[in-house]
Structure formats: structure tokens, C-alpha cells
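User: What would this chain look like folded?
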Amino acid sequence: MADCTSGPMPVYQSFILPWWRQVLWTVLFAGMVVVATVGNLVVIWIVLANKRMRSVTNYFLVNLSVADAMVSTLNVTFNFTYMLNSDWPFGHFYCKFCQFIAVLSISASVFTLLAISVDRYVAIMSPLRPRLGKRATLGITAAIWAWSSIISSPNLIYFTTETDFLPDGNVRRVCFSEWPDGITTRSHMEYVYNVMFMVLTYFMPIMAMTYAYSRVGVELWGSQSIGECTQRQLDNVKSKRRVVKMMIVVVVIFAVCWLPFHVYFVVTSYYPDVVNYPHIQEIYLGIYWLAMSNSMYNPIIYCWMNSKFRRGFKQFFWCCGALGGSGLTRHRAFGGDRLDRSMRSLSPSRKNGTSLFKTTKFMKNPPGSPHLLHANKINKHDSHFDA
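Assistant: Here's the prediction, encoded as C-alpha cells.
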């Protein structure tokens, strides 16, 4: 650790954006949190409140919605507040818990998507093979959360808080990771962990899902049956195609949302001077918003591409009086048909925004740079195929 008293003292910089930009970012994040939370809770309600919707794939969809709702309610708001104000007022325990929840929910989302892709692959490529039962599905779900907890456990161990006394007399609380071999951005152990996290929760799942859905797409669109098909067979193929289209949309959106986030951490690991860019705080806020916004897109996709979910959303808001009952009668059930297998993608970060960095004290770095959120410490550092 460098001695802050040796050499000339760099000028301390505040990390507070102008008020109007704070308002703009607050509106963007608040809107995302509300849409993600309400949307995913409605998806959970649609499946659990209707017995005919309780299929194998729909249990996986509920698991995805639980993970997305967790990250939007228990993580995003707190990390955004920290990034915006450069102060962590939520205490030592929640510093650990917030970062744990971030990685936990992201990992659970990705592995659930992967489980869905495997389930769809087996259902279409090997239709005579016995399918998962609900008990086996719940067992896989439990295993997903257990494995995700193991992956996120370092955050419970190594995240901590500290109080900084600033030259202007203000006091700032910081939440940062401190590994056995050094503070964040100075720790080789953390670098290895971040790379492994990126590989396990982004590149490997993307490659596996791309392969699975490519094979499924060839099977559904490229193969032609011999002889005459019945109308029921044609309808079955069409419903499967709709489901696969939805799954592809979910995976593509997931990949797009999370790619800049992972690239950012790789780039800053090799080129730390990137954090000196004048507008790095808002660049990172944009990257973080994009990654976290993935949690709000899946309910929108379900409602857009699945008539059963669309009807369920209408019924929910009708019950709440939001739609005045238009377009939906009181007695019309939306779970009577077999549900489309809508899927979704994951989600982010280190998964949170605060694994950001506690780095340099009194350094000339851009206000609110992600690496300076803890800043100014020099080198301290269907129940089968339901379609």
C-alpha cells in the first residue's frame, strides 16, 4: 500500500453529478426497477395461481422471475444509490448481503436458462425420451440455487465497509471487496474469480444455448416429415416454433445486455487508466443500467409473444382495476391451454455495481468513476412441451 504522505498530494475530487443528471439517472433506474419487479411478480402469480400453468418449463420460468425480482428489489436500488452518491449508508451486513444477492440471482438466472434450453433440446430432438417430472424439476431448481450460492459466497466473505474522512471534512462510507492478497483491482485472486465468473455465467451458457437452439431450429424449420401430416401435427410444430422463437429472443437480449458489462471489467483489468476518462461514471452507469435492465425484459417478452401470458397480464391488471376489465371477461381462464414455453436470459454482475472499486485516494480521476466509488485512497487497494 502506498504511503499517502509521500510525494505531492493530488487534488481531491468530488464524485457527485450535477443535480439534473442525477434526476435523469434516478428516473431511468426507478422505472427499470418498477417494471422488473411488477412484471416478474405477475409472471409468478400467473403460473402459481393457475393449476394448468404449472408445467415443468413454467416452474423454470417462475425460478427466472424469482431471480430477476430479487436483483431488482434487493440489489439495484442500493448499488445505484451508492454509485450516484459515492456513499454506502446501508451498513456492514447489507454491504455483504447485497453483493451476495447480486451474484446469486445472476447465476441462478443463467443456469435456469441453460436448464430450459436442455429441456427443450431433449423434448424436440428426442421426443420419445422420458421427460422431467415436477419433482425432478424442483430438484434441479434447488441444485441451481445451491451452486449459485457457492459461486456468490466470496462476496459474503470478502466484502467489507470502511469510513473515509475527506479533506473537505465530510465522512464517506465505502463498500468494497478486500481479498487475502489485496484490495479490489489489486488482487490477483479477485481477477481470477471475475474471469471464472464471466466464463461460467456468460460465455459457456451462451455457447451451450446457441448450440441447443441451433439444432432445435434446424429440426423444426429444416426437416420435412415423410407422408401426410395431420392438422394436429402441424399445429404442434407451429406451437413449438413459437416457443423456440421466444427462447431465441430471450437469449439474444440477455447476450446483448450483459456483453458490455463483462467487456468493461476485462478492459479495466488490463488497462486501468480507462477509469481516468472524464465521463467514466456515466459510461459505467449506462453499462450497469443495460445489464440490470435485462430483468425487466422477460415479462415483456412473455406478454408480447405468448397469448396465455398476455391474457394472464390482462386478468391481473383487471383484478387490480388497472384495465377496467376491458378485453377480458370475469370468468375467462387464461390457463386452460397449454402454455407457450417462453424463456429468458440472465443476468450480471459482479455483478452488482458495487464490486466497483476502492482504489486511489486523492487521485485525479473522473467524478464517480466505477473504480473510484470507494475512491481517494491511493493504492489501497409438455408438463412437457407446453406450447
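The radius of gyration is 23 Å. If you want, I can go into more detail on any region.
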